[in-house]
Every structure is written in structure tokens, then in C-alpha cells.
Amino acid sequence: MNKITQFSQGLFQGNKLVIGIPYGWFILLVAIPLMIVMKISLSEMESTSISSMISWTNGLPTLKLNFANYQFIFSDSLYVKTFYSSLKYALITTLICLAIGYPFVYFMARAPKHIQPTLLMLIMLPFWTSFLLRIYAWKTLLVSNGVINNVLLSLHVIKEPLAMMNNSFSLTIGMVYSYLPFMILPLYANLSKLDLRYLEAAADLGTSPFKAFWLITVPLSKAGIIAGSMLVFIPAVGEYVIPELLGGPDTLMIGRVLWDEFFSNNDWPMAAAVAVVMIALILVPMAILNRAEASLEEGKS
Amino acid sequence: MSQASNKVFANGWMFAVYLFLYLPIVTLVVFSFNDSKLVTVWSHASTRWYSALMQDGDLISAVSLSLKIAFLSALMSVFFGTFTAFALHRYSRFRGRTILHSMATTPLVMPDVIVGLSLLLMLVSLQQWLGYPERGLFTILLGHALLGTAYAAVVVTSRLKEMDGRLDEAAMDLGAKPLQVFQLVTLPLLAPALVSAFLLTFTLSFDDVVLSSFLSGPGFNTMPMVIFSRARLGLNPTINAVATVTITIVSIAVIASSFYTSHVERKRKREMALAYSDGNK
Question: What ipTM does this complex have?
Fold first, then answer.
């Protein structure tokens, strides 16, 4: 055993407390709540309370599992459509963020070394100012009598205001806008460490810059691309605030359905079942993210 | 493409991205000084929405609730986040490390609605069982502290990775007790990370609307909840004024803290260079 571990074990009277405190905290606030969601998704709403899963008949407990919520979700075309549409918007958002973010990071990593921290801080700064207010700002820009339409009308570029609000356009803009920094940061962490000598070697051996980009830069930044994409895709699937403020009646998003089941219909078991299906959908992307992050770590050390 | 046109394209692309990121913020600020009730049509400059803000009782009490929650949850986040970072970094091979790591990343990536719903259902079950806690400040605080812990753990972990473990060893070799080492060596080296973790989690809490909506009880409206309910109804010039005030404060805090961090970093490097040069004499 090396000295550092010995020292750490001495700290706070042994490692039990250092490990135990965060363990207890996350078990109480992450693991148990998720189990309760599973449990409640298998019960049903009885007028004002949630039915109990275990009922007592003749002094013997019987377990009653109710799959009705799940049956409903998978047989109701609106739910199926909404899940499909959430995945679609999340995928579109991810691809656009990658298309904007990758060239951006590529150029940023080649900017003079001393201005790179400032460039990075300028990406982070909007992230520090309220997300809600920035989404609201897009509303003032995009509505039919909004800033963009007013400017275009006064410049006689358009005759009629463009319909940019409460449709898939405004939703996509809002999502790309909010999640772009989540794509840029892991990509930068990855690309800023790329050894430029590989590209020089390729050029010396007669490879064209375009070919070198696809054969060297892209494969070496694979972990960053995957981590960034998953960091955008996973929260985007369940996004609620952006579709509520910028989306329209046609832009179905599952986060909004969950919210309505909970707050408007007061159907907690149904909301829990929607949440469980959502978790099932993002489990695979989460596993991919974990692997990408692990390989980013290895690249660093 | 020639070298020069490459450069123009690169700069143009980066400029366009920054324009995309800052255009909405600039618009918000500019139109907060607009006299018209129509948020998007410029009439002439005035500060009437700022005076309206001063008399907005709902908003003012919401701001004070949000500040209280943000401060307390940031403290809790830094506390639990530091423990999480130590557990994950210093004990790289204890059993169940993967479980702790995945539990700590869950709040970062999981959609807010799921985190909010699951926490609420847990708290309701707890309340049915123990009669405590009532929904209100405490439950919102717990939700924000959970989210903040996950972020704080990332910030502190990345600092721990950069830190030189040999300094701790050296202090121990010189006879410092573990708690002394922590106080005199580890903590000062960690301080910039703790400050940025505090600021980050404070902002996250001050900004959150989804978790608060799930976890709040009657009479407990945070500032984002009030803004959200107004923004849902339509455009409202007071929101622009709130935005401008928030943006100003946050920008000052972020820039000041980044100056502080780089100052501390430079000072430390200078001291280390000095120490090494002394040693070589």
C-alpha cells in the first residue's frame, strides 16, 4: 500500500467516513428515489391516493403488480408518437450541435495558445447566466412581431412576418442554443490535446489535409465526439422547459407529457411509468457515455 | 483553399457561433431599457421597468427565497461534492466505486423531470412514513443540493487530478499529522476549486425551475418559478429587467472569480519557482 492511501485513511479517522458520507447521500437521493419510481409505476391511482402493492387477504400478503400503465403507454398511439418525436428532436439537436461545435472546436484548438482560455470562457459565460432567461430571450426574437421579424420587415427583406415561433424551428433553435456548450467542452478537452505531429507526419507522407482530417483528427477525437453527443442527447430527450416555452402543439416532447400527467392529471403512477420508459430509453446512451468518459480519462493520463 | 481564406473561414465560423450565443442576451438587455409595453418594438429609452421591478412584491420575495436556497444548497453541494471527489479520486479501487461514480453522474445527465419526480415521490413516501418533511424550502434545498453535489464533485475531482500528491507526502514525511496536512497543504491547494464549485452550484440552484416546481409546496415560489409562469403567458418587460440585473451580477462574479483563480494560481507557481531555486543554491 502506498503512502497516499495510508495518509488518506488517516484523514477523517479512516476511509469509512469519506466513502460512507457520499455513498449514503446518493443512495438516499438517487438510488432509493429511482426504486420508488419503479414501484409506483406498477401501482394505480385510487381516487386520491396510490394503491398499495401489497394487500392482505386472510392474513396473507399478496403482491399485486399492475402493468396497466405500461400497457397503456405502448398501446396508445399518442404516447408512442411522443416518445418517437422526443428521440427525433434529441437526435436532430445532437447532430446540429456536432455540426456547429466540431468545426468551432477545431478552429479554437488552433487559435494562439494564450487566447484559448478567453475563447473558452466566452463559451461558458452564457452557461452561467440563467438558462430560463436565455430561452425567454429567443421568444422575444422569434415571435411574429418579434425582433428578427421587425428588422427583416423594416429592411424589406420579407413582406410577411416569418412563422418562426411555436413550431419545430423554434424548438430546435432553443435546444441547440442551450446544449451547444455541452458539446463544445468535451470536444475541446479532447482536441486541444491532439498531437499535431501526427498531422505533420501525414503531410510529409503526402496525405492531403482533407484526408488527414478524416483519417487522423476524427478518429483521435472519437471519445470527445461520443461524450459530447451523449451529454447533449440524454438531457435533450427529457427536456421540458424549452418545449414548453418555444415548442408548439405539434412538437410533442415526452418531458411535457410527464409534467402534464403529474401536475394537470395528478396521475402519479402514470407519470412514474412514463419516467421509467424514458430511463429505459436513455440507459444505452448512458452506458456509451460512461465508456467514452473512461477512454477520455485514459487519454489524459 | 489557401491559407488566408482558411483563416477567414475559421474566424468567420467562430464569430458566428459567438453571435448565436450572445445575440439573445444582448437583445434582452437592450429591450429592458425600452419604454414601450411591447417588448419587441423599440420606442425610447427609459428605466420604467426597473422601477416596476422595485414594486413587484411577488418577485422580490421570490428572489429572497431563491438567494437563501442558492446559498445553503451551494454550501451543501461543496461539502458533499468534496467528499464524493475524495472518495472517487483518492480511493481509486474500493469496491462499489463504479456504483458511486454512476450515482454521482446520474443527476448530471438525467433529464430534470425524472430527477424531480423521483425525489418528490421519495419525499412523499418519507412523509407518509415519518410525517416529515413538509414540502417547502427544505425539500427544494435537498433537490438543489443533490444536483449541485454532482457538479461540485466534477469540479473538485478535476482539481484533485491536477494536484501533486507528493506535496501531501512531503508534509507527512516532515511529521505533519493527517489533519494538519489537510488543513495546511490540501485545503489551500483545493481552495480555488472550492470557490468555483460554490459559484457554479449557487448559479445552478438560482436558475433551476423544474426541480423547484416538483419539490415546492404552497407559498414557496422561487424566482425562476415566478419568471417561468410569466413567460408561459407571454412576453413581459419586467422579465427583461430581471434578466439584465441577473446577468450583470453573474458576469461580475464570474469575471472576478476567474481573476481570483488565476491570481492564486500565479502566486502559487511563483512561490514554487522560488522554493525550487532556493533549493538549487
Answer: 0.84
Query: By three-state DSSP, how is residue B220 classified?
Result: coil
Rg of chain B over Cα atoms, rounded to whole angstroms, equals 24
The nearest CA of chain A is from the CA of B194 a distance in Å of: 17
Work out how many CB contacts closer than 8 A connect A with B: 238
pLDDT, chain A, mean: 84
Second-level CATH architecture of B57-280 = Orthogonal Bundle (1.10)
Convert the pLDDT of each residue in A149-161 to its tens digit. Answer: 888 888 888 888 8
Q: What is the percent of chain A where pLDDT is above 90?
A: 34
pTM, whole model, 2 decimals? 0.85
Cβ contact, residue pair A275, B114, below 8 Å: yes
DSSP state of B135: S
Using left for φ > 0, alpha for ψ between -120 and 50, and beta otherwise, residue B131 falls in left
Could you give the CA distance from residue B13 to residue B138 in angstroms, rounded to a whole number? Answer: 46
Interface residue A103 vs chain B (CB under 8 A): yes
3-state secondary structure of B208: coil
Going along chain A from its start, the domains and CATH numbers come out as 68-300 (1.10.3720.10)
From chain A residues 49-68, the ones with a CB under 8 A of any chain B CB are none
